[in-house]
Specification:
heterodimer, A: 106 residues, mainly alpha, B: 143 residues, 5 helices, 73% helix, globular
Chain lengths: 106, 143
């Protein structure tokens, strides 16, 4: 269940990233509101996940998967290029999360 | 110390502060126990807003990719190191190694995912806390 909570929290964190970008330094009220509401919902689901995960472990997985999602969305939706550097970063993060899981630490 | 030096030093101080706030956010979200403890929950909200503010100020002058990399690294490493001090948790060697791998990956990805220095018509890069466009605008104005 904690992985599901973390996944939901990550979706909201990615929405925060996109909405905050469109909020134009928080001058645009609609996107600022979406930023804050998504931030609140993401934080709630993160806190549910951290009932099971240790704080450092859950937080690291959450923030890193959000980073992967943001990069992938940038490629899929915003026409960014997926170069070898980004690919390596994504691979290292996934290896770290899987390693943490397989070692029983997560 | 020239005006530029001082303002640059202030930006880096603000970035370190943003990292510190993010550690506070992570720890208080954990301490809120699924938002069932009011005081920790309120502290989490305050840290969330403080982080957003400090990061946006710091990224007016610091390169967005470098800024995010430093901020994310501080937040994740700080939460991992300080978690055991505040909660009934332990950080084993195996955990620490894999966490190190994840944090290195995040820092690397943030550096790799920085928006390419391109004309204003370049597509927006959504980024964590998404303050990219604002930072880019301000950078352009100051150079």
């Amino acid at each position: 269940m904690q992985w599901l909570y973390l996944a939901i929290a990550d979706i909201f964190e990615i929405v925060v990233a996109i909405a905050a970008g469109k909020a134009e330094g928080f001058k645009n009220r609609r996107w600022t509101a979406i930023t804050l509401v998504s931030g609140a919902l993401g934080t709630y689901f993160l806190s549910r996940a951290l009932l099971t995960f240790d704080v450092g472990v859950g937080y690291a997985i959450w923030t890193s998967i959000a980073g992967v999602g943001i990069t992938v969305l940038g490629v899929v939706l915003f026409g960014q290029r997926l170069n070898w550097r980004k690919t390596l970063g994504i691979a290292v993060i996934i290896a770290g999360v899987v390693g943490l899981q397989l070692s029983g630490a997560a | 110390m020239s005006h530029t030096d001082r303002s640059s030093a202030n930006s880096w101080l603000m970035l370190l502060l943003a990292g510190g706030f993010e550690i506070g956010y992570a720890l208080s979200v954990g301490g809120s126990h699924g938002f069932t403890r009011l005081s920790w929950s309120l502290v989490a909200v305050v840290f969330f807003l403080l982080t957003l503010w400090a990061l946006s100020v710091a990224l007016r002058t610091i390169d967005v990719g470098i800024g995010y990399a430093v901020w994310a690294g501080i937040g994740a490493a700080g939460a991992a190191l300080l978690g055991p001090f505040f909660f009934d948790e332990s950080l084993t060697v195996t955990q620490a190694v894999w966490l190190g791998v994840i944090i290195a990956g995040v820092v690397w990805l943030k550096l790799a995912d920085r928006p390419e220095p391109a004309p204003a018509s370049a597509p927006e890069t959504p980024d964590t806390r998404g303050l990219t466009s604002q930072a880019r605008e301000t950078q352009g104005a100051q150079r």
